[in-house]
Here is the input.
Amino acid sequence: MPSERRLHPASFLFAIAGQLRQFLLPGVVVIFTAGAASGGWEPWWMFAVIPVAVGALLRSLSYRYHLDETELVVRTGFVFRKERHIPYARIQNIEAIQNVAHRLLQVIEVRIETGAGKEDDATMRVVPVAAYQEIRECVLGSRPASALPAAEAGSPEPGGSTIFRLTGRELLLSGLIDNRSAVVIAAAFGVIWELGLFDRVFGLFFDDEVSGRRFVRQAVRQIFGGGVPSFQTLAFTVAGALILFAAVTVLSMAWSYIRLYGFLLRRAGDDLRVEYGLFTRISATIPLWRIQTLTIFEGPLHRLFGRAAVKVETAGADASEQGATGREPLAPIIRRQDLKTLLEHVLPDVDFARLEWEAVAPGAFWRELRRSAIAATVGSLLFGLMVTWLTLGLRIAPPWSGNKLTWWTLGLLVLLLALATVHARRYTASLGWATRDGAVLFRRGWLRQRITVARFSKMQIVALHRSPFDRRTGMARLRVDTAGAASEADRIDIPYLPADIASDLHRRLAAEASGTSFQW
Amino acid sequence: MSADLDGPPDASPASVADGVHRQLDPRVIQLERITSFIASACISGVLAMAVVITWLAADSAWIPRLFAIAWPAITGLLAWHSYAWPAISYRYESYRVDHLGIEIRRGVVWRRQITVPKSRVQHIDVSQGPVERRFGLGSLSIYTAGTDYAMVALRGVTHERALRIRDHLLPKEAQDAV
Here is the structure.
């Protein structure tokens, strides 16, 4: 075993392709924008990719790794040589990515993450599938992790105990609930709009009056101009919105189906293994004791369908890393009964059934109300300004008279303030914390509920914050810092605690943290 | 009360973990004033250059005039801040070392109370800048595996004390972290 290995001979292809991909989007933009303007110099700028690609190629050709008894040694570089030693004990998780091209060549890209920083500590792009299994066994070898064929796509019944798998129906449901592609589609819509494609497409079907931008301008003029919009305009607006919404949803479902196809979470020894993907197969190994925090998320649609999503943070994961486990939830969608099984695996000590949530201070409602009331006021003012700007910008004559706009803005303000009251009431009621079975739990959100759990042994620093508002109302905010807390929303950051309880909890948690020794 | 807090240098290393809230060394006020004055002077100098440039370049007269009024006001504000703020923030800053770890309180308006358990300390830097050296003060930077508080700093203790706190917080025996 302790012999030096190289990457797969085809690695250079992927090294170059990886660099090319980064240039693809700017390149397309350059070609599009430069296309119309006279044959300028811009396309030549694309040749900047060559030195970068050569650099990646050399790095890939010089890459050597070596599986030692206790550490992984990676050597790169011809001229400036670099040798990196990664003790197995420090490795947080291993992730393997296999896209269609990888599968054709029977190779796999392996990412090894320690808690050290932004960059993958060792990305092997690419090694043969057999080598991946060897690496994984070596790294996690101290334990009898058994030789599980994890990487092969569609192996019929892999070993280990399956915690849950996602059927096609669940995948589509996940797409429906997440609707994450809405952002992408909105962005695409904006680009197409800018390029004026709508004008051309609409022009084919309708007369000039309803084409693209002119149509929207007309609609705005009719709505804000105070007149009654014509039936045609109304019908087009509603139909357009419906079609767009349906398209976004269908695309989101399709995307979810492709991305998470064959999602399987199982437990092998003390590791969780996740596999998913139709074209690009991703398989990740997360040692259970490396999990820093766990967050259960339930949006309104989740509750409607009786589902939840579960996310874990490990110290190795990095939020900005494409396709890393840090980005993808441990369970994008999970049924209630499966959730129970999953929690029993990940947090066996914590008894969720017997949790008793402690509420925040009674005055929290007023503080939250003030916050959201300020937001409501700013929002309605912005609305007023935007309408003024829009009517002036689109040269709608006559623009809304000042009086009418004032009434509209006031109406919106009243509506938003009512919403703010409901929000403050429900939100402060949803806030809760608990300490139980060696873990601290934090619950918040009424439309989008989250429960975050951090074990005492994973807490790093406990901090008590007191803003001037906190001091005036006798409250405090308690924050628990953990390693690898990439997502702002998934942190333990309990606001509006009564000051004495907060300081008590602070002392207790600090003592609990001191009492346990941290293992990454 | 703070005069005798940093104690005579003959105190044994164990006494650093006394569990008492201690204020910083009072000389830190002077230190902060000096560093803050240097920073303010830099900002003020850059602004003065901007005023001169607008004076030379601007077409209208009122913009340079506005700047010429604003500059002394800003400089005065910075000078006041440099002088007064260190004394104010000194009053709200304290630390406490005990056998479990270190607790740091700071913040005049937004107050924070940060507890670093001893078992979570990854490594510690003790540093001393040129001005700090003149005052015999040092800075502690305590690193943990955390995210927001990956580094917690304590400025304004005597260098000798900073070293003792470091020795107290770092694990005595080599323990396998995994």
About this structure: The longest strand of chain B covers residues 137-144. The mean pLDDT of chain B is 85.
